[in-house]
Amino acid sequence: MVKRILVVEDEIQIAKILKLELEYEGYEVVVANNGKFGLEIALQGKIDLMLLDIMLPEMNGIEVLRRVRQENELMPIILLTARNMTMDKVRGLDLGANDYMTKPFEMEELLARVRSCLRQNEIITNVTNHEEDLLSIRDLSINMETREVIRANTSISLTPKEFDLLVYLISHKNKIVTRENIIKDVWDYDYEGDTNVIDVFIWHLRKKIDEGYTSPPIIQTVRGVGYIVKEN
Length: 232
Ligand code: CA
Hints:
It is a single chain. The protein is of the alpha/beta class. It folds into 2 domains: 4-124, Rossmann fold; 132-229, Orthogonal Bundle (Arc Repressor Mutant, subunit A). The chain contains 8 helices and 12 strands. The strands form 3 sheets. Strands 2-1-3-4-5 form a 5-stranded parallel β-sheet, with helices on both faces. A 4-stranded antiparallel β-sheet has the order 6-7-8-9. It starts with a strand and ends with a strand. The structure holds calcium ion. Residues 10-11, 53, 55-56 line the site of calcium ion.
């Protein structure tokens, strides 16, 4: 996917060169010529990396950085600073800038840092996503990617349909789901009438995930209504 870079820079010439070079490298580039506008675009959430000048009209880069970090901790931000502004660099790094470049800079070096920041960000994002792939309740966890189900360090083997059913129940944990809900969402059809098939599947699933454990069963029956999966 094409990466989108926001350039916040009031010096028209520098902004223009940056845009040209970055576009030549295959990035999509958005330019903001003052801090306020830059902040606005940065917070819209479709920016993969920001190049942020510090001396800006409307709102200076340090303030833009501070406000972006309140909302977004992960977006890579590279500061563009004037040669003698050491204080700003320190302040900027303290406020969560990923890197800085001192003007005038070598374009090759800037591009290398852009690549490096994007790469690091991708690694972090992947780790975060993988954590989201884990679904869990009490001592039972489901890895959505490998479809592995583990309870108390023991791997449990489920049929594909049992797996879908368990994922559905856990995604709705602490809420009652009716047999009709399950038929519609897990079996994917409008089913009028007999829902006994659900009870059979639940029976098998319980045998696999609840039998032999002393704690209250994970899957509980709500008589006359349906089922509930409870955290405790
Ligand atoms: Ca400037």
